[in-house]
Design brief:
heterodimer; A: about 150 residues; alpha/beta; Rossmann fold; five-stranded parallel sheet; two-stranded antiparallel sheet; 5 helices; 7 strands; globular; B: about 375 residues; alpha+beta; Cytochrome-c3 Hydrogenase, chain B; three-stranded antiparallel sheet; 14 helices; 8 strands; about 15% strand
């Protein structure tokens, strides 16, 4: 486990999964890849397949329709794996967390009720700087853990 | 088709797929490399937005409606504010009308640049994607300076707008517009001369003029099929009746002409912002309106970056909406999308072209998912 974590701290590959987001967080996640923010200088790379990814980056409130797919994507990832919740909706349900009695009928209030979350990036939407900060903090956590 | 029926098989694309930015399921029916038909499932983004709006007051709803879509949030709040103001029967101050146009057009610029980048990425031209997204940051910086945030701005308020445009911001805006104009013209030159772009987009995703009208396409998708239709010109709102602009059309009917239409529209938006800054009238920003909205129905049309956006509000005299209904441009463009994705006669759709065709309508499924789509045929 030690060597694996050491290697992963150098270059975590990220899978971005949109669980019903308004696109606000998604375009900021994509913006982190582009020349001004350039997340690749930390060795972080956005991948398309869950089999290749180490970190699952989730954006948006988790809708009932997408829940099973989200868990399936998480299970397809190889160990060790980490989850980052990006944006207020993903962390707590955000604007959808209160509709009369409890959360909206089709939304789960918070990602941590479904998956173990390692890092939270608050904001609506978080700025690219905040997303980079969140991932680099996760990388630090990966390196320090035994 | 019946003789070759056995050779048709289903190819699911999504809900998690490298070519997709949002969860959507495209169930493609393919015969070899050719797409014969497609069934779309857009239900993954359904959040119960319309029901949620009924539980909140109008002021709270403003922030909920904004989160229908992160990219065209100003168009959504603009529609919502117009509905509420319409039921009150009140006009907003002149200055606010102009500022709303500036915010709306600035959003259109960033959305079209974002789209052009994504389209370049889908055809495998990643250098172009990086260039465009670097220049898109100019428009986002201006948005942050002008409205207070990069993406979700909360700029429109019921009865006007929230922030004024100071002379410093106006100066920065003018400089930014000059830079953006130069860059967009450069991109147009690249698109018109680069064979990589032409080969991947010309003759792909054909939507003929009659089919576009019959299937109710909207926005740049419709205008790229040669139909001159734009809510800003046909049914002017805010200050659009006072701001001159040209409705851009193209007769190409394919993905390439959709790129050209969006690039020309970006140039038009730049000119509109310049005009609005020049002619910005003095006066207040906000007209205070009562919390309770008089009973009645109101329907409004706004030209969002992706096309015509329709909002409907039914009020019962309380401080909460009785019913709120949204019809988004992507929903209108789904039927034309199916038409584009079906091989017919000499028109052949390859599986490799599906992401390009999907991107060419500039889909935003988070907007669309409040609607139920019933599978036909």
């Amino acid at each position: 486990m030690g060597v694996q974590r050491w290697a992963m701290g150098r270059s975590p590959w990220v899978l971005h999964f949109n669980t019903g987001s308004c696109n606000g967080c998604d375009i900021e996640v994509v913006a982190t890849l582009t020349p001004r923010y350039d997340i690749e200088r930390f060795g972080i790379f956005l991948k398309g397949s869950p089999r290749h990814a180490d970190v699952l980056m989730v954006t948006g409130p988790i809708t009932r329709q997408v829940k099973d797919r989200l868990i399936r994507v998480y299970e397809q990832m190889a160990e060790p794996k980490f989850v980052v919740a990006v944006g207020s909706c993903c962390i707590s349900g955000g604007v959808f967390s209160n509709c009369g009695k409890g959360a909206c009928y089709n939304v789960y209030a918070g990602l941590d009720s479904l998956l173990p979350v390692d890092a939270y990036v608050p904001g609506c939407p978080p700025k690219p700087e905040a997303i980079i900060d969140g991932i680099t903090k996760l990388v630090k956590k990966i390196k320090e853990e035994k | 088709m019946s003789s070759s029926y056995e050779r048709i098989f289903n190819l699911p694309l999504g809900p998690q797929h490298p070519a997709l930015k949002e969860p959507v399921l495209l169930d493609l029916k393919v015969e070899g490399e050719h797409v014969v038909d497609v069934a779309l499932d857009v239900s993954y983004n359904h959040r119960g937005m319309e029901k949620a709006a009924e539980y909140r007051t109008y002021v709270q709803d403003l922030y909920l409606i904004e989160r229908i879509c992160g990219i065209c949030n100003i168009a959504h709040t603009l529609s919502f504010c117009q509905c509420v103001e319409g039921l009150h029967g009140k006009e907003i101050p002149e200055r606010a009308k102009y500022l709303r146009v500036i915010a709306e057009e600035l959003e259109r610029i960033q959305s079209h640049l974002l789209w052009l980048g994504v389209a370049a990425h889908e055809i495998g031209f990643d250098t172009f994607f990086m260039y465009i997204w670097l220049d898109r940051e100019i428009s986002l910086d201006l948005m942050e300076e002008f409205a207070g945030n990069r993406i979700t701005t909360s700029y429109n308020a019921i009865g006007g707008v929230k922030r004024d445009m100071t002379p410093e911001v106006a100066n920065k805006m003018k400089k930014g517009m000059d830079k953006l104009e130069e860059r967009v013209k450069f991109y147009k030159k690249v698109v018109l001369s680069e064979r990589t772009v032409m080969k991947r987009t010309m003759g792909i995703g054909i939507l003929r003029r009659d089919a576009a009208i019959q299937l109710n396409a909207v926005g740049p998708t419709l205008r790229a099929s040669g139909v001159d239709m734009d809510a800003r010109a046909d049914d002017p709102y805010a200050a659009h009746s006072l701001v001159p602009f040209k409705v851009v059309t193209d007769d190409g009917c394919d993905a390439f002409s959709r790129i050209i239409v969006r690039l020309d529209e970006t140039l038009e938006s730049i000119n509109m912002i310049r005009y609005c800054i020049e002619k910005l009238p003095p006066g207040p920003l906000l007209q205070r309106l009562p919390r309770r909205v008089p009973a009645g129905d109101f329907l409004t049309r706004v030209e969002a970056p992706r096309g015509e956006l329709v909002h409907f509000l039914r009020a019962d005299g309380s401080d909460k909406p009785y019913r709120y209904k949204v019809k988004t441009p992507t929903f209108s463009n789904l039927a034309p999308l199916r038409e584009m994705l079906r091989s017919k006669g000499k028109y052949v759709v390859n599986v490799a072209d599906v992401p390009v065709i999907l991107a060419s309508i500039d889909p935003c499924f988070s907007c669309t998912s409040r609607n139920e789509v019933v599978k036909s045929s």
